[in-house]
Structure to design on (669 residues):
């Protein structure tokens, strides 16, 4: 099977979906001739033309608002927010419009729309190219939120998102774009929305992660394996709707849970996971649910020393695992 | 900027509709829709004051702007995005009086939302009336997106989107119009400029006289029209739709009008508008004006007028009755259609 990077898998998914379905159009800043600031849309302008790969004015609310309209009138728009940190000006369009269109019309209108957004820290992106935004959107009924981070999952979930009838926030961890490589089969396949995956089986404790933290957690798991701690790692892949079955099955198996995310701790998605596990698997726990997250400060200061201090890494995860395993 | 002002004498009136391609039947139908909208509107307020409707929004005073513009649409072909004051737009496009009352009373069989939305948030896919929220101006970029899709698909549909003067201060207005201008999209932006956004007067909303002036910044025509002159509104809207349909791009229409009643059933407009001002505008009631013109032109007679008023009043009564005896939704329906259900 060919080995691809995350960004290659992403581009392949866009290309194949545009070829498969002429209703698929892309909208965003610099996505045309330029190919996007991360080159996610490279070559697509040349392949499909300016009418399907649309360079928009610099206006995030407008990008999403126009994409909603295009979806209403039968297209399958994929909107790119150049950096997730700039999605807030489109918040109203996402929360009040895209997410509520089906509900408010009693199912008679729909909004099949994908909003792609590069997120996450660890790339010296400073305060405005590093943020984690998933918790804001995970709170919104009517949206789906996915955050795949292996080339296989990225391609399969992007295809599933484009084919979905509802609005999907598609989060791409920017540090994984070129860092993470993996096998991607030739040809068409999808990874269904709403399915987590056990990326490493283990019996002593469960780490639940997504985004770059999935890869760091896998690294940490290998390290502690040498000490005899057998860690199971669950990759959420989809944040909303949550795959409760896979999460609870793993918790029941190991009895201990560490939740790792690079978002701030307070109000981060880890709280929701902890709530779910407490409610539905309390009897199976034999230790406190632990959360490892970035302290509650704006993410991320530009200076590397400051960023490294705040950012999670495999070592910090190893330390948390040891602490929980000893409980 | 182009200015359209209707001047009316019996003879001109007769000539005017002919020049606009409207038949006598069309004129009477427009008059009918205006009367029906007013009759329903009056009953909504009664229902509210009787405690039978929780909340109502009024379009009284806006009937010429709404009917004149909507009558120029290709119904079922053109996309329509209304805002919360647009009962008469909905009626003209084809929503029934009964459906208006079902929306007012939030009943299970309300086709717009089955009782989920506030009143007057009309939605009906078969007529291409697109669901809108209560958030002011958010529907404007949707209109540009719908028009973008029409252009890409090569379909003849034009999209019209309605909003108030206050909405033109929002970023959505700018972002929607700018996008439409760049791509020369088949869309008409229709502002029902009633001089207030709740209590905030136009002078505190913008530093210019006419909303239409804003079109210059987007590279397409802005048109001022007397929004209480139904035929003038029809004329400018028809021109804008024709231009859009033939690839000429968007138009911004600034229809000057006035709302006769408080902002909503929850508002007390005595706090910010003098009774004299309101009375002055009521003398320019668009329905009375059209009636006079039609009478003068010999198109309407007193007898015909009485008959039309009786008929529309009866239709409104029937709608109220029908609405009141319609069932509420099943409580469990509150959980449905968050996501696609197949
Ligand atoms: C974004 C937003 N802000 C505030 C409100 C509350 N609100 C509802 S209508 C309105 C005034 C709108 O005025 P205008 O656009 O001129 O339309 P009009 O009601 O005068 O027809 C306000 C402030 C809202 N619905 N949406």
């Amino acid at each position: 099977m060919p080995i691809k990077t995350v960004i290659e898998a992403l581009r392949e998914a866009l290309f194949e979906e545009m070829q498969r379905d002429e209703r698929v159009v892309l909208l965003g800043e610099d996505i045309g001739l330029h190919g996007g600031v991360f080159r996610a849309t490279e070559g697509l302008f040349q392949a499909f033309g300016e009418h399907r790969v649309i360079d928009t004015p610099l206006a995030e609310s407008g990008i999403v608002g126009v994409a909603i309209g295009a979806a209403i009138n039968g297209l399958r728009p994929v909107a790119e927010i150049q950096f997730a940190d700039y999605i807030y000006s489109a918040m109203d369009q996402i929360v009040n419009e895209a997410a509520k269109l089906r509900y408010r019309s009693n199912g008679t209108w729909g909004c099949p729309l994908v909003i792609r957004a590069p997120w996450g820290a660890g790339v010296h992106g400073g305060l405005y190219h590093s943020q984690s935004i998933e918790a804001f959107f995970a709170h919104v009924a009517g949206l789906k939120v996915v955050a795949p981070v292996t080339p296989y999952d990225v391609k399969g979930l992007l295809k599933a998102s484009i084919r979905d009838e509802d609005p999907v926030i598609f989060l791409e961890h920017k540090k994984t774009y070129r860092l993470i490589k993996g096998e991607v089969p030739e040809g068409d396949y999808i990874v269904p929305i709403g399915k987590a995956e056990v990326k490493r089986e283990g019996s002593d404790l469960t780490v639940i992660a997504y985004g770059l933290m999935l890869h760091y957690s896998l690294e940490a798991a290998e390290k502690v394996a040498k000490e005899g701690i057998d860690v199971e790692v669950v990759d959420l892949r989809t944040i909303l709707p949550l795959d409760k079955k896979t999460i609870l099955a793993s918790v029941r198996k190991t009895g201990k849970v560490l939740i790792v995310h690079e978002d701030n701790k307070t109000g981060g998605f880890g709280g929701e996971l902890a709530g779910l596990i407490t409610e539905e698997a309390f009897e199976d726990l034999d230790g406190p649910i632990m959360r490892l997250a970035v302290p509650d400060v704006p993410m991320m200061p530009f200076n590397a020393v400051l960023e490294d201090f705040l950012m999670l890494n495999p070592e910090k995860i190893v330390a948390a695992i040891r602490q929980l395993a000893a409980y | 900027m182009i200015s359209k002002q209707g001047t009316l004498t019996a003879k001109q009136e007769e000539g005017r509709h002919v020049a606009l391609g409207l038949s006598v039947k069309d004129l009477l139908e427009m008059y009918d829709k205006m009367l029906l909208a007013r009759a329903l509107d009056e009953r909504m307020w009664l229902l509210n004051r009787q405690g039978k409707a929780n909340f109502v929004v009024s379009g009284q005073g806006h009937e010429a702007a709404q009917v004149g513009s909507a009558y120029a649409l290709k119904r079922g072909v053109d996309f329509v995005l209304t805002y919360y004051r647009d009962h008469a737009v909905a009626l003209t496009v084809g929503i029934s009086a009964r459906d208006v009352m079902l929306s007012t009373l939030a009943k299970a069989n309300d086709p717009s939302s089955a009782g989920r939305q506030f009143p007057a948030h009309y939605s009906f896919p078969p007529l291409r009336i697109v669901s809108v929220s209560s958030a002011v101006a958010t529907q404007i970029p949707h209109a540009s997106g719908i028009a973008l899709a029409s252009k890409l698909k090569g379909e003849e549909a034009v999209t019209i989107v309605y909003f108030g003067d206050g909405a033109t201060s929002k970023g959505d207005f700018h972002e929607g119009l700018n996008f439409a201008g760049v791509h020369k999209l088949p869309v008409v932006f229709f502002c029902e400029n009633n001089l207030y956004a709740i209590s905030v007067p136009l002078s505190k909303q913008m530093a210019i006289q006419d909303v239409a002036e804003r079109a210059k910044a987007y590279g397409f025509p802005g048109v001022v029209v007397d929004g209480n002159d139904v035929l003038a509104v029809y004329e400018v809207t028809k021109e804008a739709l024709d231009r859009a349909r033939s690839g000429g791009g968007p138009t911004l229409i600034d229809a000057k009008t006035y709302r006769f009643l408080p902002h909503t059933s929850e508002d007390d407009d005595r706090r910010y508008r003098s009774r004299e001002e309101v009375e002055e505008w009521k003398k320019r009631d668009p329905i009375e004006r059209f009636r006079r013109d039609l009478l003068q032109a010999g198109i309407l007679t007193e007898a015909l007028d009485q008959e039309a008023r009786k008929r529309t009043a009866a239709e409104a009564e029937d709608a109220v009755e029908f609405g009141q005896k319609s069932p509420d939704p099943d409580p469990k329906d509150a959980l449905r259609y968050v996501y696609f259900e197949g």
Notes: The mean pLDDT of chain A is 98. The pocket of thiamine diphosphate is lined by residues B 85, 134-136, 163-167, 192, 194, 196-198, 263 (CB under 6 Å). The radius of gyration of chain A is 19 Å. Chain A has 13 helices and 14 strands.
